[in-house]
Specification:
single chain; mainly alpha; about 70 residues; about 0% strand
Amino acid sequence: MGGCDENLKAIPVLLEGWSVDQIEEKLTGVTCGRRGTSCSDQLAKAVRAAFTASKDPNYRSPLEEDDDD
């Protein structure tokens, strides 16, 4: 929730042509204020999860809630 609309418009333009590894290298670990993460950090995690899921249809992201509970 939240975030800057302008950033959401700029990110796809800036990342066009980048590999998953490049996105992770540049964006993982970026923080926002006192938070231990940021929109950029979360984007890197989501890109990796989407890439992994595209290769393995049984992949389940650690970000997903466990429905078995």
